[in-house]
């Protein structure tokens, strides 16, 4: 797959982060010391293209933001765009706990101060029952985990989404057991393709895509990419994950894109690209969504039919 990655993004594609951060800093400052969690680092506003970006044409803003899964707002693909606008995403804090050296409840502004040095534009292919190419703005999850210090006994990373039924109409119904939860093995979490995304197309993350902070794991099915994260926990045992809890026969913990392992009710051998129209030709699904060169090593020696 040599030559698949290409840095064709220009500086003009880069996020205007300064305005966003200043706004958050003002809010944090006004709230005073009570809100200030442990400090994570210095401000450095700079974004550059990721070496992992694909040269495939990204989907349009419209396609990425009007056709979503975010069950906290309802189960229709159009519900998130319709109802997520009311979600308050600023201020926002993330509790980082479990097997870490510096646990705490960190204000998002502090997290971003510490990691913006690493922020990149990632144009990644993402797959669910449909496939999209999204130019995310984000940073490696590893950067944050390194800053809080992962204890040697930690084996997994667990994530939770916000629970706020007043602003999330789907949570007023028992669609899923809230909070939405997800997990990764520690080595998957530390992989440079695993990012925390804060925006797309150089803009702040639209609420329907998981503002203000969501996970992106491009070699896994889309449901692993948990949105609007409020908790990150380092654990010894394999953590709970929403779809795995819901239906363990159909959704495994790993959920790697794999054309050879079918979902019990449908084939995973091909995928429907979004934006090609209703009659668009389905494309063959690639192992690990085309990221096999980068991630296959994580699963060497594992039976991927058992560990699906
Ligand atoms: N995160 C939360 N909190 N709630 C959800 O319902 N849906 C998942 C994932 N993250 C979901 C979530 C699923 S099924 C998919 S396919 C992706 O988000 C969709 O992300 P997108 O809307 O940005 O394309």
Description:
The protein is of the alpha+beta class and 308 residues long. The chain is built from eight helices and 13 strands. It has a single domain (11-299), classed as Sulfite Oxidase, Chain A, domain 2, CATH 3.90.420.10. The strands form two sheets. Strands 1, 4, 5, 8, 9, 10, 12 and 13 form an eight-stranded mixed beta sheet that branches. Strand 2 (93-98) and strand 3 form a beta hairpin. Helix 1 (17-31) packs across helix 4. The protein is globular, with a radius of gyration of 19 Å. Ligand MTE binds at residues 68-72, 128, 161, 180, 209, 222-223, 225-228.
Outline:
globular
Biggest sheet record: 8 strands, mixed
Measured between the Cα atoms of the first and last residue, the distance is 24 Å
Task: Please identify the structural class as seen in this structure.
Answer: alpha+beta
Reconstruct the topology from this structure.
Elements: H1 17-31, E1 48-49, H2 61-66, H3 79-83, E2 93-98, E3 104-107, H4 108-115, E4 120-127, E5 130-140, H5 141-148, E6 156-161, E7 181-185, H6 186-189, E8 195-200, E9 203-204, E10 214-216, E11 229-235, H7 242-246, E12 270-273, E13 283-284, H8 292-295
Parallel strand pairs: 1-4, 2-11, 5-12
Antiparallel strand pairs: 2-3, 4-5, 5-8, 6-7, 6-11, 8-9, 8-10, 12-13
This protein binds ligand MTE.
Ligand MTE is lined by residues 68-72, 128, 161, 180, 209, 222-223, 225-228.
